[in-house]
Every structure is written in structure tokens, then in C-alpha cells.
Specification:
With 485 residues, the protein is an alpha+beta fold. Helix content is 57%, strand content 19%. The chain is built from 10 helices and 9 strands. The chain has helices at 22-31, 34-44, 46-54, 147-214, 222-254, 286-308, 328-337, 357-423, 429-463, 474-484; strands spanning 8-11, 16-20, 59-70, 82-95, 100-114, 126-139, 261-265, 312-325, 341-350. The strands form 2 sheets. It has a 6-stranded antiparallel beta sheet.
Amino acid sequence: MVTLLAVLTAVSWANIEIVLNQKQVAEAVIKSSNFGQIVNLNAQLSRLQYAETLSAFDFKLTAEGLHDVSKQENLSGSSLDKTENFKTSIGLEKRFATGSLLDLSFERNSFKYDLPTSYTGSLPPAQTQDVLSLTLEQDLLRNAFGRADRAELRSAEKTYEAAQIQRVTDLQTAVLDGVRLFWETYTSMKSTEEAVAARDRYKNLVISVRRKNSFGYAAPGELSQVQAELEARESTVRDKNLSYLEKKNSLLNLLSLPSNSVIKFDVASELPAPPTLPETNVTGLRPYRVAQAKMIAADEKRFAGQSQNWVDLSLMAKLASAGLETSSSGSYSEMTSGNRPSYYMGLQLEHQFGSGTLRERELNRKLLADIERLKFQDTQKSLQSRELELREKVRKAYENTVSAKAQKDFRDRAARDLQRSFTQGRTDISLLIDSLNRYSSSEIAYLESIGDYQVALNEWAAFRDQLVPELKLSEIESFQKGAKQ
């Protein structure tokens, strides 16, 4: 298993020092973070709905065994001393996607009689009846030849497909959040380092002004000004340290790393230029496919609702073979010989009316289908415009980073020039303080622009479904195959 700890540089009782880069953060979010596991587990919840739809086509096996003892009198006033009935039945039922229902059953009734001494009838002391039957029901109007069942099944398949695609989309969103937090933490760390460097510059400046003041060369208020600025830098360092601690802890918690870990960032020093990529075909993107699958699923539900609003007319047919003998073996032989067949065929009509529930159910499904169609149209339009926005965002973020780098360099040069000029007594202290503060702000702005540019690149990659590669659907296909069998 790939670990996000690329280099374990030091281990002690106090902390664990790790090296972390963007790729390792992405892998850790998918494989080891709690959020990634929650996304995967939530996606598996959709299996139940699909399985419940398939359960309509399950084999149903029933078995029954009864022993009945009776000493009751009959209405004629005569009775047997005792009647024992051993009843055994077994049945296998299966519904098919053609709207057909087959039921194969076997039933055995065995009787034993205690005949009174006064009995003069022809009833034997024991007899057994065996019946083997095959029953067929075929839907003709409502769910005609299984069209509603097949529509429900197609809807469930599309819903499950959408859930699995959405799983990858949610994982990609989690990865993007992790990458964004990685760059925020890196920027916070570098900002803290710059705050410390700015404080050190003021410490040196305080020493210089204090020496200058001891010789009587300092202007009135110079020492107090730089001391006040030093105090402000001390406060900034404390604030930046706290902000970095919060970001670092959030990142460690997201990646399920020990809270005492010390992060060493593996970040390239060179800034990559924006990539030149062809326009994306939105029909292949995951959000498009999810919205499309949901729309198809809702439309199939609507079609099934229309079919289920019809009158229920079914063809009924049954073929049976029976046997009746004093012994079970004789009864079974007579049943299997087919000498005592029975059969029937007819129609069964059923219609529910009064509350209008079926019509309301059909309307409800039509409304849901219209909603999903509108959502699909909105998704298509938003995807087409989103890439243009992201391309522009990446371009502007890159230009802002280049500009921030140039500003930082100019501010650095200006601060060094004014430092020399102040040492020579040719520059007012307020100009130097303003220059040092502006340089520190430009350094932080440059670091933040790097993070913004990297996040913009990853947002573009996420839009193109390249941040997290397409997962294989072998797990889904194997589950569907097993369920259908």
C-alpha cells in the first residue's frame, strides 16, 4: 500500500517529522482518510435500492408440513373414531421480466382413519393424494408483458450507475479540498517564516537605531518608532504561528496523521506555466454523466408509472396431475403417469379506483422526471461555461503570481536601498519603516499567489476529471451479474 510518508526523516518521543507533497496528500485522502472512506461507504448504500428492485425476480421457495388429528363428528351425526392427516407441500415461484409468473408446486395429503366397528362404508383405513401443478400468470394490460418491470429495472440500474460515478466525483471533491488545505498550510507556514524574518529585520534595526541614538545622531522619535514596529512584528509572529498551527492540525486530521507530526513540505521551486489543453467534451465528464443517468432513471420511473395506471388484466392457466391411492407409492406413480390430469385457463380482471392514488403516483413520477430533465439541462450549460471560467482563472492566477514575484523583488531592492540611505543619514525612518512593511506584505502576497495558482490548476484538473482517475467498474458489474443470476 502506497504511504503518504515518502521520507521518514526523524522519529522521537516528542514528534514525527515527515515530508509531504501534493501527490501524497491526494493519495492519502482517497486511501486512508476518514472522509474518503465515508464517501466509499455512502456509495455502497445505493446497492440496497438496486437489490430491492431485482428482488421482484427472485426465486421464492415455500415448504409446509402439518399433522392434523381430529375426533370431530360430522353433520350427519356419524363419525370416525379418529382421523389423522399428514400434509406436505413444497412450491417454487419465479417472476420474469416478461410479466410472467410461474409457480411449480407439489402437495401430498396422507390420511389415516380409525374406523368404528359399526362402520359399513367403503373408506379404506389409509389413503394418500399427490398433486403436481404448474401455474402461469401473464400480465396483459397493467405491466403488459413486463414493460413496467423492465422500466423499473432500467431505472434502478441507472440510479446505481449514477451513485457509483458520483462516488468518484465526491472523492475528487475531497481530494481537491485536501490539496487546497495543503497549499493553505504551506502558505501559512511560509507566511510565518516571513513574519519571523520581518521581526528579525526590525530587531537589527532597533540595534542600529539604539547605537545611533547613543552617539546622539538619531532624530527625535526614531528609536520609539522602530521599537513600536518591533512590538507589532512580535504580535504578527504570534498570530501567524497560531494560524499555521490551526491549518497544520486540520491537514493532519484530514490525512489521519499523528497530531505531533512536523510537516516538511516538498514543493517545487519553479512555477509551472499554464498547460495548453484542447477544449473538453462535456458529455464525457462525470457531472454530465451523473445528471444524464438520473434523468434517464426518472424517465423510466415515469414510464413504469404510466403502465401501472392501467387496468390489471392477467391470463391465468394451470396444469395439474393428481394421484389417489391407499399407499404413498401408488399415489405418486399415478400422479407421475399423468392419467389423472386437470387444467384450466381464464382471465382475471382487477381495478383499483376511488382515491386516485395510481393517477397521483403517475403525476408524481412525471414531475420528478421533468425536474431531472431541467437539472440535466442546467448541468450541461454550466459545464460548458465553467471551463472557460477555469481557463481564465488559471491564466489570471499565473499572471498574478508573476506580477507578485516582480513586486516582491522591487520591494526588496527598494528596502535595501533605503536601508543603506538611512544608515548614511539621508532617509527619514518613516520611509524605511513603510518600505520594510511593504516588502513583507509583498512577500506574503507572493506566497499566497503561488497557493492560489496551484489550487486553480487543480480545480481545472478536477473539472476535466483528471485529479482522480476513473475507477474501474468491475465491482459494480460483478455485483449486478450476481444479482441477476
